Structure formats: structure tokens, C-alpha cells
Amino acid sequence: METSALQKERAKYQPKLPKxxxxxxxxxxxxxxxxxxxxxxxxxxxxxxxxMPLVEFVPADSQDSLSINVGVILSGGQAPGGHNxxxxxxxxxxxxxxxxxxxxxxxxPGGLVDHNYIEITSDLIHNYRNTGxxxxxxxxRTKLESIDQFEKGLEIIRQLDxxxxxxxxxxxxxxxxxxxxxxxxxxxxxxQVIGCPKTIDGDLKNEQIETxxxxxxxxxxxxxxxxxxxxxxxxARKYWHFIKLMGRSASHITLECALQTQPNICLISEEIEAKxxxxxxxxxxIARVVALRAKDGKNYGLVLIxxxxxxxxxAVGRLIKELNDLLANHGEEYMGLDHKAQRAYxxxxxxxxxxxxxxxxxxxxxxxxxLERDPHGNVQVSLIETDKLLSDMVSAKLEQWAKDGxxxxxxxxxxxxxxxxxxxxxxSNFDANxxxxxxxxxxxxxxxxxxxxxxxxxxxxxxxxxxIAGGVPITMMMNIEKRNGVMKPVIRKALxxxxxxxxxxxxxxxxxxxxxTSYIYPGPIQYWGPSEICDRTTRTLVLEQNxxxxxNC
Length: 553
Ligand code: FBP
Description:
Blueprint: H1 5-11, E1 25-29, H2 39-45, E2 55-59, E3 69-74, H3 82-96, E4 101-105, H4 110-114, E5 117-120, H5 122-126, H6 147-159, E6 162-169, H7 171-186, E7 192-197, H8 215-236, E8 240-245, H9 252-261, E9 265-266, H10 269-274, H11 279-295, E10 301-306, H12 309-312, H13 314-335, H14 339-349, H15 352-360, H16 363-369, H17 386-403, E11 413-418, H18 420-423, H19 429-447, E12 453-458, E13 468-473, E14 478-483, E15 486-491, H20 501-507, H21 510-515, H22 531-534, H23 539-545, H24 547-552
Parallel strand pairs: 3-4, 3-6, 6-7, 7-12, 8-10, 8-11, 9-10
Antiparallel strand pairs: 1-2, 2-13, 4-5, 12-13, 14-15
Helix pairs in contact: 3-19, 8-9, 9-20, 11-17, 13-14, 13-15
Bound molecules: 1,6-di-O-phosphono-beta-D-fructofuranose.
1,6-di-O-phosphono-beta-D-fructofuranose binds near residues 79, 199, 201 and 247.
GO biological process, one term: response to glucose
Family: Belongs to the phosphofructokinase type A (PFKA) family. PPi-dependent PFK group II subfamily. Clade 'Long' sub-subfamily.
Protein name: Pyrophosphate--fructose 6-phosphate 1-phosphotransferase
């Protein structure tokens, strides 16, 4: 395999580990845990994996050289650092016993069910250390949920003499990891299942998970690009740039990029929902800032838009919920129709209030909202052109204001969508170390006999040596929510907390950023050089974890 000069140098980088994971390890158990909500229902659904204690790794004098084969799966959207989770897992398994084997199931959870796998060897992993992407074994979105799939998986697990499966995924994939752990435990198959918190979206976080891996690198890549666009914008002074940013549901990515680059406008979906804003309110807000800047002769600016915005506009959100149920219950009938007939079908079946919202949306957007859901029942928001919808509506509003004599200016718009550019980037030092530590923790959870746990690493704003590694029972993060029209146990998604330090810090400065041109140009991720540049974490993590900063926000 031909590699770039950067890749060759990065392959030599030895990720740092928390002190407790550097040698032999033992576990310290905490108190029994309970789910975040719906305790009785979750306990009933997970009788074998509910209530287990939190665990923390501490140094030990020695450790048994357990012989164990493990399977690993990458699930869902790519996130920088996935290869380092696998490297950490591989190295730790080999350290415990050089005869241990690691198998990678190909193209996501489907690889387990269809028995597609490779053995991960030392030569193979070498070229993937500290690289971005999931191409070592590929990823996929097959949902592991049926007994059939679990039993098909078991056949290959038995054939390869595998004792544990590690599923590297987001909230949905880790929920499924727990369902699988519970099933194998109930059947007494002796197969452990361990999860790992991945997603650039940053919404798999809670008291135990400080951040999901990939968020750090992806937001740095987007912020670099936004900074470059901002500088172009401030050089030419003739365009408004509407930048849509990935993040299916939560606005963490957009908020972090705003904190790093200081755009003129940044929309946060969670605030729009909390304040019950309409599409028209949002359009007016943007148009007001455009008009305000035009008064100062500034017919240019930067708008950041989270890709999940549309679902958070309360009226549209209600419509999407009803569409989800409609598609879940009548999907087959509906999918067989052509576009025009699909629109008529929806209009005929919607409740009056949601019908009104549906018919007032531009036809293209209404159609995008009615497309097939992903396997987890989510609207595929990355396909919805929210940035174009907003700029068209702002343009129409400004034209009206111009006619009424309320606005004089030029409004030339350029659109960007930043998403896929960041998901496979070379991981930052933070993600390289964090992921390697997560993989090492996953191996330790396995050899310590745990199942239904997710690997965690805490205290991540401190130097790596001081990080605290361990595991959290997945049931601890669960509650019951409606998915695909059915009430299901799921890990609760972390949305932007409007009382949290990152949002408050942004909200305290946005008026100034709207009027002034205060752009920051973060530049590219640095891998070698001064620690304050190479090892800096996200603004979000620092603001959330640093109690001193929080009191100043
Ligand atoms: P995960 O939650 O699986 O990590 O994926 C997140 C994400 O990158 C979202 O930001 C985006 O909306 C979605 O994946 C895109 O999905 P796809 O890769 O299937 O196009």
C-alpha cells in the first residue's frame, strides 16, 4: 500500500496512555447503577446487564495472560480515530497474550451476520495507525436487532473461537451492543459485548462520557475551512456564505465551530426549539443581521447552520414525527408511488395542523422530509438543503424590505456543506490518544470479564497521563423513546444544553460578532510543535469540564 509522507511519519507516533493503562491493570468497582429514566422498564428488558457498577482501571502488579480472541465492528458514520481504537485494542490484547487474535468484521454490523471478516495482524494494522477513515475494515449502518441476526453472528463467533465483540459506534449502535450483550448473557453463551463511544456529532456524552471520539478532529477541520472561507469573505467583501454543518440532530459541531471562528450568525437548533421559533422567525433574524451590516456598508458575512435544524423548528418537528409514524406504518404502500402521488398520499393522511405545515414548505424540502428513513428511523438530514431554503427565504424577505424602503444593500450568497470532509481526517493528537486509550480500555473490560459496558476515558482536559479510564454499564445511559413508531430502550442523546457553558459563552458574544467582523482563522490541525497548539482540545470540552471557566461564563 502506497502511503503519504505524513502517513509514514504519523505511523511512528506512539499514542499516549493514561497512567493506569500503561502496565498491568486491575479494576476498581463503584456502586450499582440505574438507568437515566424509566428504571423499571429498562431493568425488565435487561435483567442480566442492568444495575452493574461503574468500573475504573487502576495499576496492578501483574495480570493474568488470558488467552482470548476478539471481534471488532465499526458501526455508522466515519469518525477520525477509529483505527486507533482498533490499534489500542490490538496492542493490549497482544500485550496480555501474544497468541490472542483480533478479527475485524467487514462493512459494519452486517459483517458479523454475513460472516465477512479478516484477521487483523501486526503488519496490517501498521499502515493504519494514527490514520483517519474506517477503511481498515469498513463501516455500515445495519441495525443489529433480531434474534436471527444474533444467532447467525454466534455461528461465526463460535467458529473463530471469539470470546468478545467490540462495537465502535454512536448512541444507536451502542444501544444495539447492549441488546446483543443482554441476549448472549441471557442465553449463557459466554460471549461478551463491549461498546465504544464514536460520533463526530458529539451527542454521545453524559456524566460518564466526556466526549465521543472524532468530534475533536472533525470540528477542527471544519473550523479551519470556515476560517479560510471567513478570510476570503473578509478579503473580497462581496458574499454572504451560508455554511451548513454536519450533526444529524444536536448542534454541538456548529456551536464548537462558532466558538472557534466567531461567525456573524450561528443558528443553534436546540435554542430555536426551546424558544418555539418559526421558520419565518429564523429568516427575519438572519435578514435583520444582513440589513444591519448593509447599513455599515458590509454586504458580506458568514452564517453557520446545523444540518439538523429543520427537525427542531417546532412545527416542522411535529410534522416529521407524524411522517415517521406514517412511513413506519405505511412505508411499502408509499414507496411504490411516484413523487406526485407520494405528495398527495401524505397530504391525504396527515392531521390538519401538520398538513398545513407540509403544504407551506417548498415542494423540494417537503419531498426531502418524506424520503426513506435510515435503518434507525432517522430523517436523512444531510440530504436536506436547509442552507438554500434559508438563503432563498432571506433573499425574498430582503427584496420585500427593499421595496418598502427598509433595506439598501446587496445580498449575493454562496453555499457550502461541511460534513464528509471532516469525518475521515487524520486524527488530532487528542483523538489519536483518546481513541487508543478507549481501545486499550475495551481490551481491559474484556479480560476483566465485563459485558454490556462501554469503554470510557475521563478527565480529558488534563494531560493524558492523568486521564481516568474505565467502563460504564450501557443500561445506565438508557431511557425509553419512540423510534420507527415504536417505544424502545435507547441511549439518551445529548443535545446542546442551553444552560451549559459553551452555549452561554457563544450567546454572550453573538451580538458583537453579528455587527463587527470578528472572525478567527484557526488554521490546520498541527501534529508536531508546541503543546498548546498540538494538544489543545475543543472549546466545548474545556468550557464543559473547566469549573473555573464555567463560573466566568
Ligand atoms: P453517526 O451518528 O453514525 O456517527 O453518524 C453521524 C453522521 O456523520 C451525521 O453527522 C450525518 O448526518 C450522518 O452521519 C450522515 O450519514 P451517512 O454517512 O449515512 O450519509
